[in-house]
Amino acid sequence: MKEPGSVGTIIGSVTGVTFPDSSAVLNVEEHASSLSNWERTGFPKQGGQSLSYWLQQVRCDPLLDHRTTQNLPAQADTVIIGSGITGTLVAKHHLQTWPDKSIVVLEAREFCSGATGRNAGHCKPDQWRHFGKFEKAYGQEQAIKIMKNEASTWRALVAYIKGNNVDCDLWVGETLDVPLDDEVAKIAKEVFERYENLGGKVDHIKVIHDPAEAAKVSRIKNAKACYAWQASTLQPWKLTAHIMRDDIEKGVNLQTYTIAQAVNETGSSTRKWVVQTDRGAIACDTVVHATNAYSAALEPSLKGVITPKPHMCNKVLPPRALCGSKAIQNSYGVLLPDGALFSINPRCTTDGIMMFGGSNPGQKQLDAWVERHPEHCIDDGLSRVENVTECVREFVSDNLEGWKDAEFGPGEGFDYSWSGIIGLSADGVPFVGELPGKPGQWICAGHHGHGMARIFTAAPGLVKLMNGESWGSTGLPEVYQINSERLRRLRTASEQPPKVATLNP
Asked: For the FAD dependent oxidoreductase domain, which residue ranges apply (predicted)?
């Protein structure tokens, strides 16, 4: 396989990879990411939010509306905006680095009610699939480094959960990537082999190219191949809550239902910044933007760079034919011909409920509706979006043995779906570092629907930068670093139509 063209020339606009004269595309998360209105943004929806399955499970938890102090403090050393896994982990590592500095975490709504509390419950490190796209945009070295970082992130997350006995429904086992189309399987094979030939680590990945064997192993009837490696599923809210409780015990002040509205210079010699909220102002020396999809609402320089978009997750209770000893025992990324993806989390170690996330074909219709109604770009009040759910129904009926002819009793079947807001990054990777031209303001955001496989290393990496350490000390890929040049290039790229990188076998 030849090198897929020049690198660095189309940063911000590579949405997938394909072959000449092929209609098939490999690359999933970007399947539904091509927007005409990249500069839309907004603050978190106030009222009417849907409840994810994770949030449904914790309605009696006092952390949901916790305020460490009755009144908002007038000042603090550091203000962290956002209480998801990013803000909570930044607070944890901030405490370890500067145990005597004061920290206030602001949350616009319930604790951890944004993307972390609304995802499909996967921590699945990308170990090869996006290599072709990232190589085209950033070159071989950075593309390999991204794959290595995601593996490191997963190991760090699992080590923390096991080392601290966190009760968050952790499952560790084989995740399966399964192409359902011959052309997609061919592209996947080329990307995998190129990654291997260039020195990418693949000895931990089991590969099956025989469709009959792939169908047997994956239990997906129309499988054309199967790639298996270690990943995890979990209850993400419970993990984040465990970390935040420890943060609070060590001195963090959490203020829920407090909307950060603006960040301005104080104009005084005592504190550098003032964060304006709906409950008053808080002055500080350091601000951390951990707001992911909502980042551009507070920081205008990020418009067109980080963009919010609703995605749906379906909660499905399998029929008795797929329960007990016949229950699904793997998580999945099911790869469809047009770049679409079913992300499947069957919660193997707990209740067996199956979560269907990702960008299935019905997501395109939801995207088109949001394009016509951009005020819904931050609408996580969506539920039971039939176009998306119908695609899940068709998939399980056509592909999972025993599903099509199963009888469904009360309490089984397609129970519920909810929306979460992903923060699309204009180049598909997060932004980590100090905001250009605003010393003392830092960011870790724009995770592009893949935050659980990045944040457990990105958040501590940000704190190292805050402590004056070099980028190399973070271990993160250099392309994650935010700087003026990257922002300039992405604003230019966002004005151009997205491209699909062509591979030459």
From this structure: 77-453
Question: How does the average pLDDT of the chain come out, rounded?
Answer: 91
Question: What's the structural domain count of the chain?
Answer: 2
Do 328 and 204 reside in the same domain of the chain?
Answer: yes
Cα gap 415→122, rounded to integer Å = 20
- Looking at the structure, do residues 228 and 299 belong to the same domain, yes or no? no
The per-residue pLDDT for 61 is 98
Q: How confident is the model at residue 39 (pLDDT cuts 50, 70, 90)?
A: confident
For residue 99, count other CB atoms closer than 10 A to its CB. Answer: 9
Same domain, yes or no, for 191 and 203? yes
The pLDDT of residue 503:
43
Which amino acid, one-letter code, is at 9? T
Cβ proximity of 234 and 242 under 8 Å: no
Give, as one character, the DSSP assignment of residue 73.
P
Confidence of residue 17 (pLDDT cuts 50, 70, 90): low
How does DSSP assign 295-307, residue by residue? Answer: HHHH-GGGTTTEE
Closest CA to 418 of 324, 499, 290, 315: 315
Say which residues have a Cβ less than 8 Å from residue 354's Cβ, sequence separation at least 6: 315, 316, 317, 318, 328, 344, 345, 346, 347
Q: Does residue 176 sit in the same domain as residue 311?
A: yes
Domain that residue 465 falls in: 53-118+237-305+427-502
Distance CA 202, CA 127 (A): 8
Tens of pLDDT, residues 2-16: 343 333 333 445 566
C-alpha Rg value of the chain to the nearest Å: 22
User: DSSP 3-state assignment of 418?
Assistant: strand
* 8 Å CB contact between 267 and 254: no
366 and 313 in a common domain: yes
Domain boundary among 403, 425, 447: 425
Q: Other CB atoms closer than 10 Å to residue 262's CB: what's the count?
A: 12
DSSP string, 327-375: S--SEEEEEPTBS-EEEEE--TTTT--EEEEEE-THHHHHHHHHHHSGG
- Cα 63 from Cα 68, distance rounded (Å): 10
Do residues 400 and 251 both lie within one domain? no
Domain closes at, from 392, 410, 425: 425
* 153 in a structural domain: no
- Which SS3 state, helix, strand or coil, does residue 134 take? helix
* CATH number, residue 81: 3.50.50.60
Lowest mean pLDDT, pick from 219-223, 342-346, 471-475, 498-502: 498-502
pLDDT at 497 over 50: no
62 and 191 share one domain: no
Q: Which two tokens stand for residue 472?
A: 């190399």
